[in-house]
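Sequence only, no structure available. Ideas?
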Amino acid sequence: MRNSMIRAAFAAATTLATGAIAIAPVSAQTTTASVRGTVRDAAGTAVAGATVVATSTGTNQSYRATTDTAGRYTLNGIRAGGYSITVTGPNGETSTSTVTVGIAQSASLDVTLGAAAAPDATATAEAPATGDEQTIVVTGRRLIESRTSEIATNVSQEQLRTLPQTDRNFLSFAALAPGVRYNDSETDKGFQAGASTAAQVNVFIDGVSLKNKLREGGVAGQQNSRGNPFGQLAVQEFRVLTQNYKAEYEQAGSAIITAVTKSGTNEFHGEAFGQYTDRGLTERSFLDRRNGRDKPAFERKQYGVSLGGPIIKDKLFFFGTYEGNDQDRAFIVDSTGTAENVRAFEAASGRRISEFEGNFVSPFRADFYFGKLTFTPDDAQTFDLSYSRREETDIQGFGGNVAYEFAENKRNTVETYLLKWTYRGDNFINEVNLNYLNYNFSPTSLNPGQSSFNYDTVIQFGGREASRREIQQGYTLRDDFTYTGFDNHAIKVGARVEVTDIEFSNLAFLQPGYTFRIDTVENPNTNLANDTNFTFPAEARLGLGNGTVRGSNTQLGFYIQDDWDVTDRLQLNLGLRWDYETNGNNNDFVTSANAAAALRALPATSYFDPENYISTGSNRDPFAGAFAPRFGFSYDIFDNARTVIFGGFGRYYDRNNFNNTVDEQSRTINPIGVFRFSRDGQPRNGLQTVVWDPRYLTREGLLELRATSTSGAPELFAVKNNTKPPVNDQVSLGVRQQVGPWQLALTGSYQRGRNGYTNLFATRQNGGTGPCCNTTPLTPFGFSNALIGFDGLDTRYKAIYFTADKPYTEVSGWGVNVAYTLSKGEQNGGDLFSLDAVTPDDYGWRPRNGDERHRVVLSGIVDLPLGFQFSTLSTFGSGQAFRVTDGTNGATSGFNEFSARYPDKNCIKGVFAFCEVNLTLANKLKILGGETEIAVDLLNAFNNNNFSGFDDFFNNQINPATGQVVDTLDPARIGRDLLTLPRRIQFRVGYRF
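Reply:
I predicted one. Tokens follow.
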């Protein structure tokens, strides 16, 4: 009775999720896999009515199927792991294969009954005869995936444990997939793909989306974080989907990572590890030698433990883990200002630049906890209950031209709760997923009581301008249903509802922030009184409020997917997805009467209709057009899974994160006063100024100025009522070829992104089509300028991917993976702000930041004598594009011009601009019934100088005081920073049982 009640309760939850379970179809491939194939006899004839049973080697849970009249079978809902798959024919012939199934794979396993299979490099075969029956046993085989339209790369547990890695961030292995780049920054770790920003990726852990809906990081907790999104010790394996992923995946315009966590089994298994590196194990960097600096402080310690096993054999299992990550990494404050500008700063401020420069330690501390219970009451059901918590503190935000006193402590907490129930029937599988995500990001200024001072291109010091508290809480119910009762079809339907609550508190400019510029404003310079220099600030900002923005958004998603085996050789993947958000653009916001009048006072243009930016609280309708068709195909030319042509096209909608549109409301309750200063009080670039007075160097002085003049008015931000979410259209065509143990693939890809969100000036001169800015119409309504949201950022991406993959097996003793990407990624406009041309299209196309034409990632594992093992993960790139700003026509926003440059190639005789060779030598010893591994990593083995932070701004104006160019552009040969640390040694030790 109790089991019946539990099933009834979950059935009710399922019904709520799907609307009507009777119309449903597929197991969510975000967490599970499928195995399909054909069973034939020794003569090659299809065997109908054969029984196929896959039994988990860890839990003894079984999955069953029966072959149809064509000998075909499909096992759906397979959890990643090891299985014994036994096929029994109607006449008693038996074949058993011991295989490993990867996460989310559509794997193939064809079986021949009555004849011994020939062994290959990844398997061994035995054929003992017993009486009239024959049993074929194939062991040690990892199933491959060739008959699929998805462009995907699986990363195995062997690779996670073995390949060299700087800091145990499992995202780093996403670089093994072509078209995907991992950002291994010491302050900002994440990944992106194609020409899209990091905001358009998504990561699923056991089906729980870690989407960052607050800011640009893409993954909750990864915004400017050097931490890891999820403990690697808890990850069993993961899959990187680059393109052609099916309709069950949501809220991503580019790459998706889907990972599955470890579970307990019928045997107790545990692990403990520690790894260490520090300053003494690190080379002195090129930049330190060049600038006569000592090696900066550096120490990194990572450690962790895990344990899993049975509570009730074959029924109830547990798994738990903890990981710690302690880092002390010094960052260098080293001004890039010209000698002339540094002298001007020191003369005007009375401070010496040497007061700020030097090495300063940035401490980072992180803890990760994970626990999981798995209950399998019978072969039809699996329950998973899990919890994870990630918490970290990180003092950063300084270095280069930014002084240590301007730093902030970035406190980060991410929690997830998951309850999942999977039920398998004779020809269907249903999976219910209930989860909760709590993300708290609270960066706090180290010196909140100090004003900030930014001497442009020289140094920024004082207290950081803001302390924030940002909270994202997501409550999700999801149901996925697979139906295989129709011949040759695996039909999937699913539904998802998520309620996201947002809280956003931004205490910006509680103390004033002053910006100083050397700018002759006009070119040629015709009005010296209008010039700015370091003797007075060109601008000041002051917070005028203290409130919290709260919002709630319900997101709905529905999909249907049919994987249709048209013939034994051709499979079509047909899908359609629809997503809907009730409050994606702060739909209930009401524009104030003053703001509405100010907007109506501005000129209407082709890109700005004032009425479309005035919200009544009821005229900002949710976007209902997010229909995303997905089509894919795979054609097995010779019906042996060795030569497969594949391809597809699809539309992929993402969403605007909260930060894009929050300013409309935040600047209403927390306005920021903008003060502009000059020598003569005349307008500059069309913007009002007041004569500078030193008494304005305090909060009280600015408040007094605001009370007695029109200066200090806030900027007006407005969101377009019919803003569309970002969307990416993708097309691909490729071929896979099996050559012995190798799987080769060549793929052509094209992606076109649209509807990216940015902000424009609505105050341009000449009726809205000229330069910035005519703010006179706003003055009567109390605003200093107006910025409008615009969904016009576009990207385009063309690429050719080549991969060669020979999986590692214990039998062969080696494995190699090669991923090569030839690509061109472009964008128009700026980023969140596009203020230097009328619209993004007026910028024209240019290489996007991070565009890299050639990139090669090589990984390999080789067993050596005496228990040693060698591995490598090495990356070679032609150099990433970076944006260059031309400030000759005016150094303030609205007058800059942009282009892109690539760094000089300084690696392998000018072939590459980026080279990082990481090597590991490990030895495994049997101790106390377990295995001890001792490893030495040699990271950046050839000590390549992978520069970043190149000079990206120039101003060819002539400084009237010196007769010299204000700021020249240096060659892209030696940057201010390094993308990778210099050569270093890292020690690792681990014990597993």
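The first strand starts at residue 32 and ends at 41.
Hope that gets you unstuck.
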